Amino acid sequence: MWWCPATMADFHQHPKLPTLHHLASAKEGVAEADVASWTKERPVALLLPALFVECERPAFPRILEEVSQADQVGQVVVTMNQMRGGECEAALEFLRRHLRGKKAWLLWNDGPELMEVWRQMEALGCPPYIEGKGSNIWMGLAWLEASGHSGLVVSHDTDILNYTRSLLWKLCLPLLHPRMGYRFAKGYYSRVSERLYGRVTRLLCFPLIQAFADVLGAQPLIEHLQSFRYPLSGEFGGDMETLGGFALPSGWGLEIAMLAEAQRALPVERMCQVDLGFHFEHRHRKLEPGEREEGLISAAMEVARCLVYQVLKQADQRGGEMLMRVVLPRYKERALEWLRRYEHVSLINGLVYDETDERAAVTAFSEALERLVSGHEMSGVIEVPGMRPGVREVLAKSAAVRDKLRLAAIKI
Q: Cα separation of 139 and 38, whole Å?
């Protein structure tokens, strides 16, 4: 049985963050046309991070077909990795077929030309290239900066099985509408079909943030993170001036880092979260890794590491291990509370609830946190591999690197 939830008329506002709810559907075509008209002065670039294997899966072709019809998107930047040998040509042919003439570019992040750019950036003091979504997003922003893009950037995942381009105007509208004035927008949605998904968010991120709040008390960053409905969603938008200053890691800590950077860079009235309108059906990852794909345990480790790093960023970094030894038992208590809550959510909605699977996820996440605390993973100081300064700061160091990067994109 597959079940799709109805739209919820929820208009609750969090005191720390403007929330733009989906309460009704705009008249067909009107909102999208308005957004397209506003982009004449503030052009929109769509940044799509992807593995090559997405070209062989069902979601990506549909996404590109929808994007090809999105008038508000001026250009598409596909920032891709894990291409081998002749797969770059196959990716280009695939993208040309489905984007249907849309102005677009391909960045081959682990290809010969961009690997040389990564090495040159390393010589400027950046960390070496580490494969991951964060690296794809960072390089996409860097290319847009090097190319002189001064408008807006929106981004979303490439594994959304029931994608429609309404997602694009909902991310764009708060950034473009003359009466809104937001500079950063975070998308949120439900992850439910016959059962609840989103385990890293539900059973790691939410209870872990609450455990930090229990231990540290009221902290601006913690309160900020608590205000987001789906802090690990991959859907965001912002103006280039804002995003170009974000320091970002290479992997799964990307989303937490972006929220932390937004909190440091912007007043609360210049950021928002946007209800994207309906249940999104993504590919569901397993706890353990598979071929060419990381599992949820690896994700849990990176999310937790980045979260601790961000909480301690303006405090004593050497206190990381001591803090985690206090937070870890509190996380386990909170995670059990969250398990019960989501069981009750499942019961009232008639959803499948697999208690064994849910508890296995909490156990796996707890073990990941314990490894983070252990001497093998952490020697008192929290570090996030591949954490790079904002793209504007890096590119300002070398005009030669900027020019080489600008020329490295492949026109689609």
A: 27
Is the Cβ–Cβ distance between 236 and 187 less than 8 Å?
yes
Structure tokens at 130: 């580490």
Q: Which two tokens stand for residue 307?
A: 């979260």
Say if residues 272 and 19 touch (Cβ distance below 8 Å).
yes
Q: What is the pLDDT of residue 300?
A: 81
List the structure tokens of 196.
Answer: 């609840």
Q: What tokens does 205 get?
A: 């991120």
CA distance 347 to 149: 49
104-108 and 73-81: which strand pairing?
parallel
CB 149 within 8 A of CB 45: yes
pLDDT per residue over 260-307, tens digit each?
999 999 999 999 999 998 666 655 556 554 444 456 778 788 888 899
Q: Give CA–CA dist 328/326, Å, rounded.
A: 6
pLDDT of residue 297: 79
pTM above 0.85, yes or no: yes
Query: What residues are paired with 152 via a beta bridge?
Result: 44, 239
Distance CA 107, CA 117 (A): 12
Q: Are 99 and 105 in contact (CB under 8 A)?
A: no
CA dihedral 155, 130, 242, 46 (to 10 degrees): -20
Both tokens assigned to 9: 């008329």
The arrangement of strands across the sheet holding 73-81 comes to 19-20, 271-275, 184-188, 236-239, 152-155, 44-51, 73-81, 104-108, 410-411
| pLDDT exceeds cutoff 50 at 331 | yes
